[in-house]
Amino acid sequence: MDLPPSAPERKTFLCRALPRLLLLLIFHASLFAIDFAAAGSVQLPDQAPIPQPRGDVLPKAAKERQEQAPLSSAEKACRKELRTLGVEFTDASNVTADGGCSLPHPIEVTKLSKRMRLEPPALLECSTALAAARFFQSEGKALARKHFEADIETVQQASGYVCRPIGDGKDLSQHAFGKALDVSGLVFSDKQEIKVGQYGDGGKPAAFLKALRAAACGPFSTVLGPGTNADHEDHFHFDTKKRRKAYCR
Ligand SMILES: [Zn+2]
Q1: Can you give the residue ranges of the Extensin-like C-terminal domain (predicted)?
Q2: Which among 1, 83, 92, 154 would be 20 to 30 A from 134, CA to CA?
C-alpha cells in the first residue's frame, strides 16, 4: 500500500517540478500564438476586392445569350421533323434588321430531301422550310414523275430571307421573316432544266409549271407567279403567312 508523501518530500517534488511546468506552459502558449496567427492569415484577403462592372455593361457571352434565345419546343419539333424527312440544314445566327425584319432562329437549307438539292442554300424559318420540303417531296415529286418521268434533283431558289417590303412598299414581305421562298427553276434527274420564266411558252415545261403552281396553293398560304404582276414574271413566290384562306393569284 502506497503512503502519501511526507511534508519535506512534497517540498522537494515541487522545487523540481515547478520549473518544468512553467517551461511547458510557455511552450504551449507560443504554439497557440503561432496557430492563431496562421489562422488569421488564411482568413484575411491578400488583396482588396476588385470592383465588378455594373449597369449596362454586360459581358459579351451574356449579350450573345440574350440575343440568341433558346429554341422553343415548336422549333425543336420542326427540326426533328426535317431530319426525319432527310432535309439537310444547319442552324444559323439570328437575323434582325432595321424596319422590323426579324428571323430569330434561322436555318440554312441545302437539301429539301436526301436527293433534292436547294440551290443556292436558303436562309429560312423552320416551318417554311418544312412546308417546302413536304411540298416538293409529295406534290412536286408526283408531278415530275407524271410530266417528265423523272425526279426533281435541284430546286433553284431566288430568295429566302431578305429584308424588303412587298411591291407597294407599305408592309414587309414574308421574306423579311424568312417565311417565303422564291423558286426560279428546277433540274430533273434526266438533267433537263426548266425555268419558271418558261411559264407562257407552252409545251411540257409550261404544263408542269401550271400544275405545280396549282398544287402549291394550300401547302403554301400565298402563291404568286408569272401573270400576278411584273415582279413575279420569272419565279414562283411561295410563303406561309398566317391566313384564313390561301391567297393564290
Ligand atoms: Zn417572293
Answers
A1: 77-249
A2: 92
